[in-house]
Amino acid sequence: MRDVDKAVILITGATDGLGRRVARDLAAQGATVLVHGRNRERAEAAVREIGEETENDGLSYYLADLSSLEEMRRLAEEVSSDHERLDVLVNNAGIGSGPSNGSSRRESKDGFELTFAVNYLSHFLLTNMLLPLLRGSAPARVVNVASAGQAPIDFDDVMLERGYDGWRAYTQSKLAQVMFTFSLAERLKGSGVTANALHPASLMDTKMVRESFGYTLSTVEEGAAAAERLAVSPDLEGVSGRYFDGQREARAKDQAYDRRARERLWTLSEGLCGLAREDAR
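^ that's the sequence the OP posted. Answer follows.
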């Protein structure tokens, strides 16, 4: 990819936690950072504060609710309209498993299980809609922030309508992200666009982790360093279709390496997102 200080980088979920730290660090290196958030006041504050901290006036924000596929389409259209290139897409936004003492099944605006919709489907759609811009900017990168917490997808009950459990919803959505990453990397071979996934760090000190677990094990800075390495490090040029635990390559759960399961997930996701097959390449 081009030098960081000349790169255009979109980060979802960049008003808080890991996403905000990555946005700040890349802005400090001179990148044009597109901050995605759901709340206008928080997005404006993030852009203003990061700009002041880094003396970078190349930040802007975009609003979209990841629980709405319509809003993800609009986000992709706005970014594509506003920018001639996109060098890096960091799919970071997401929700956790919720409190251990009262998590109940919820649905997205489109009627899908909420965690699957927010953590996975939203980014599947956003990435596919931004592929023309990424391809035109090659060499470019897609970084999917997943988790070491992974559970296989039950294709007979993807939306977890039977025996819902918040932790299973979260871990299934995270394995879906990894499976998507591997499938995307295969589809992008020869295009100059790479796709990798990572578990940034275990139980970082973020609001989502504190609400879900009540304690933390690592810092946001540790996770940000791992994500930033995949996003901009020259050492990762041309590396694609990999899963990382922090800064080292690791192995995801077995279903991620099952080609038939990955194709089944891709086809299902195309249908749920209303993507024509030729548009999801």
